[in-house]
Amino acid sequence: MNRRLEGAMALLAARPARKADSARAGEPFPMIEARRIVKVFRNAAGEFHALKGVDLTVRRGEFVAIIGKSGSGKSTLLNMITGIDHPTSGQMRVNGMDIYGSMNESQRSRWRGRNLGVVFQFFQLIPTLSLLENVMLPMDLAGVYPFEERPRRARELLAQVGLENEADKRPGLVSTGQQQAAAIARALACDPPLIVADEPTGNLDSRSAQRIIELFEELAAAGKTLVIVTHDPSMMAHARRTIVISDGELVDEAVSRALPRLSHRRMLEVSKQARRAEFNPGQVVVEVGQPVTALGIVRRGWVEAVALTEQGERVVATLGAGEMAGVSQVRRGRPAPLRLRAGQEPVEMLWLEADRAVAVLEEAGVNESG
Q1: pLDDT at position 14 over 60
Q2: DSSP character string of 30-89
Q3: From CA 11, how far away is CA 350, in angstroms rounded?
Q4: Burial class (CB in 10 A: 0-12, 13-18, 19+), 151
């Protein structure tokens, strides 16, 4: 909590809302738009629903971490984004293209070469080629850059990841961290706008992993869009957005941000149980003295906590996406001591009824002071 408000509504980790949380003005279309993506695997034992109607939007320039338990569907989702696998149903648009509805396999392969850089957990470098040749290969396959420019560009990319002195070595003669750095250089070969990676630090020591994380931060700062499947807490800490997947479904991001200590399955339950409500700019969300019968979580936009004084209204705190209001009130059955109202943008709230909220707050280890 930014400011202690004696006798006022308990606000967890209040901070000024950032307009960057809203859709970016002027952006022509998101980098990734997944709509109702379903993936069903069938075998002799029956059907397994790996993805159950996933909706996901990733804006340009975002650094996104996707996390989840083993078997949750995170790698399957990554395969849907890259076009490596096909959804059973649903639509996937990447960089403006409907990659399953408008392209055949050959077209999708050519599109992937120019639009995606893929970094695998086990590097997938060709052992008989030098690091330089591995980085040049995507340029050869995609037919980008004049032939005579490709070696120079490959060397520049290897230098960017700290491998300028290892360019002519084969993968087996460098460390695992250097192999992963070379794989990142290869992913950048055709200057794709989107980089995806599946557990890129999973097989690296801590020093090598930190270098890879720094490389990803540099790429994000340069405007690349990054989507990383990871179990690495350090990677999650550096990502600008974390998406939790559980049993083939995405947890509401506001829930995962507000209640990070819950199990992923419990987060998903809360996401489904919470009811949604929308408010116009300036509209009162909760009035002073009103019974607080539900825990509020800001899902979109921001709200202002307003004290009513003899001098008029005074905004004492703001709550942005993923922050909660009414922690103390739902626990103690007290009325709202502050007016809660929408900020200067439309606001979407999630409401969890008090009886469920009390149990969830206990599970999540949330105290009343925030």
Answers
A1: no
A2: -SEEEEEEEEEEEETTEEEEEEEEEEEEE-TT-EEEEE--TTSSHHHHHHHHHTSS--SE
A3: 15
A4: middle
**Lookup: tokens for 251:** 């947890």
Alpha-carbon distance of 227 to 235, in angstroms, equals 11
Q: Each residue of 158-204: pLDDT tens digit?
A: 998 889 999 999 999 999 889 989 999 999 999 999 999 998 888 78
Task: Please tell me the distance from the alpha carbon of residue 170 to that of residue 282, in angstroms, as a whole number.
Answer: 62
d(CA 96, CA 110): 15
| C-beta neighbour count of 370 within 10 angstroms | 16
Q: How far is CA 169 from CA 135, 174, 257, 325, in A?
A: 12, 7, 44, 57
Distance CA 303, CA 344 (A): 9
The dihedral through the CA atoms of 170, 159, 139, 79 has a sign that is positive
Buried b (16+ CB within 10 A) or exposed e, 294-309: bbbbbbbbbbbbbbee
Looking at residue 269, the DSSP 8-state letter turns out to be: H
Residue 100 carries which side chain, given as an amino acid letter?
Y
Nearest-angstrom CA–CA distance, 37 and 89: 6
Rounded mean pLDDT, 99-112: 86
H helices present in 241-341, as ranges: 253-258, 264-273, 327-332
Longest CA–CA separation in the chain, Å: 79
Q: CA torsion sign, 324 to 326 to 328 to 331?
A: negative
The answer to whether 341 and 306 are in contact (CB under 8 A) is yes
- Reported as a pLDDT band with limits 50, 70 and 90, residue 309 is confident
* pLDDT tens-digit series, residues 176-186: 889 989 999 99
